[in-house]
Amino acid sequence: MSDPIEMSQDTVVARATPEGEGGLAVVRLSGPEAMAIAARVFRGPGFGGGSGAGPVARRAVYGIFHEPIDAQVVEDGALAVIDEILALPLPGPHSYTGEDTVEFFCHGGRQVAALVVRACQAAGAVAAPPGEFTRRAFLNGRLTLDQAEAVADLIQAGSEQAARAAVAQLRGGLDAELGAVEWPLLDLLVRLEGSLEFSDDDDTAAVPAAEVRLTLEEARDGIETLLALAPAGRLLREGIHVVLAGAPNAGKSSLFNRLVGGERALVDAEPGTTRDIVTAPVRRGGRLYVLHDTAGLRDTSHLVDGAGRVETMGIARTKETVAQADLVLLLAEAGAAGGQAWPELAAGEASMAPAATLRVLTKMDLAGGGRDRTGLAPAQVDEKAGKPIATSSLTGAGVDDLWAAIERQVEAWRLDEAVSLGVVLNERHRQRLLECRDELTQMLALYEGATPGDEVAGTLLASLLARLGEISGRVFTEQMLDGVFRRFCVGK
């Protein structure tokens, strides 16, 4: 069971659209006094000053938004008009929050929406903290906790694929996958508890150990399947970080500009031009790639008396960026003798080893003789690693081949599957799943020796289900909710 959390009785208000110039802004008012507060600041059919018994649910009406009537200091009693707007009444429980809500559609811009919010506060509402509307939707049973997190993911989506995945999770994708793990375990718990309750009944036998083991193994397999999609969730949420690394003057900045499609990095024939990390987003095929151009990697141990200090700092940042990359494009100049830059970089510190590496030859337009039919020198072909991808940033040759190789690598990370299932795991989900997998492994270990009693198994299973329930929010605490909704924006 979840710790009881008292629902706030405040009626809250906030702008639901971002600040800035625009044709339309939306202000949301939600809580037990939403309709009464709206009647103090809005004149239209069903509201203050209008005819009829009250507002018609889910029907937008045109009217005048004004300062609260009891705040007027006007001799002739005229309203202090703020804007001509539409008001949409959404009585609970059939609203986003599950409680009475009114949404005001006013003219865009910074001032009008701010005046609408201020008037609502003067009429009795309080400012909504970040994520308050979605928090109320969760507490009122309108959303599970993982669906609420999908709302934030949808708002913050940096690519088409990330948005589609968030919508699929919002529609119950992850909850369905979790249910496939939880419900057999819950059924097993009921059977275990039933066997204890009727233990004196000769006709009621304990749950066979083989059935318990099978259920636990299937649950562990289901969790392993979800954990395998955890990297895809991060890549969808944050983008795929691709780092260009290589020796000085290997053509990193030129290739970076070609991949980005613009002059983002400074290019010069002098080695060491790039000293800091240059980053740019690229959206391709519905995915978000975050490209990083880096300082050239080389041995600086021969430098003395502070010479090359800035270059050394740049190399240190390069190593940090490589260590955090999802994919490293390891560059070498086609004319470099024997392509010796690759072995030196690949043999760097273990912390620099990326999850995946593609070897790329640059400046193929300047390559000389002694190459095979693809333009590669024999010493630049590593049979184990395969042929590098030959490119020319000047002519664009090979760049499409490089993008194709990048996309093949990304396909191995199962982003499409995560989108299809609606499973966008975040770190909170991953940690709970890891803990559940470990608990299942420990329970299965008990069944390898003497079979534990149903009472012990039931206690362990109840603890496991409570931990699984934290993902969907069937089990939650105030502190856990604070951590989840802290990353939401005001107005959602």
In short:
The protein is α/β, with parallel strands linked by helices and 492 residues long. 41% of the residues lie in helices and 15% in strands.
Keywords:
single chain, 492 residues, alpha/beta, Gyrase A, domain 2, Four Helix Bundle (Hemerythrin (Met), subunit A), Rossmann fold, seven-stranded mixed sheet, 16 helices
CATH superfamily of the largest domain: P-loop containing nucleotide triphosphate hydrolases
Please state the structural category: alpha/beta
Number of domains: 3
Mean pLDDT equals 83
Any low-confidence stretches, pLDDT <50, length ≥5?
Answer: 71-76, 265-269, 345-351, 369-375, 378-384
Strand percent estimate:
5-15%
Description:
With 492 residues, the chain is of the alpha/beta class. It folds into three domains: 12-128, Probable tRNA modification gtpase trme, domain 1 (Gyrase A, domain 2, 2-Layer Sandwich); 166-229 and 419-485, tRNA modification GTPase MnmE domain 2 (Four Helix Bundle (Hemerythrin (Met), subunit A)), CATH 1.20.120.430; 234-413, P-loop containing nucleotide triphosphate hydrolases (Rossmann fold, 3-Layer(aba) Sandwich). The chain has 16 helices and 13 strands. The chain has helices at 34-41, 110-122, 132-139, 145-156, 160-170, 173-197, 209-227, 230-238, 252-260, 309-323, 341-346, 399-411, 415-421, 427-446, 454-472, 478-485, and strands at residues 12-15, 25-30, 42-43, 61-66, 81-90, 101-106, 126-127, 240-246, 278-284, 287-293, 327-333, 357-362, 389-390. The strands form two sheets. The protein has a seven-stranded mixed β-sheet. Strands 9-10-8-11-12-13 form a six-stranded mixed β-sheet, with helices on both faces. Helix 11 (341-346) links the parallel strand 11 (327-333) and strand 12 (357-362). Helix 4 packs antiparallel against helix 5 and helix 14 runs antiparallel to helix 15. The longest helix is centred in the middle third of the chain and has 25 residues, at 173-197. The chain is flat. It starts with 11 loop residues before the first strand and ends in a 7-residue tail after the last helix. Residues 71-76, 265-269, 345-351, 369-375 and 378-384 have low confidence and may be disordered.
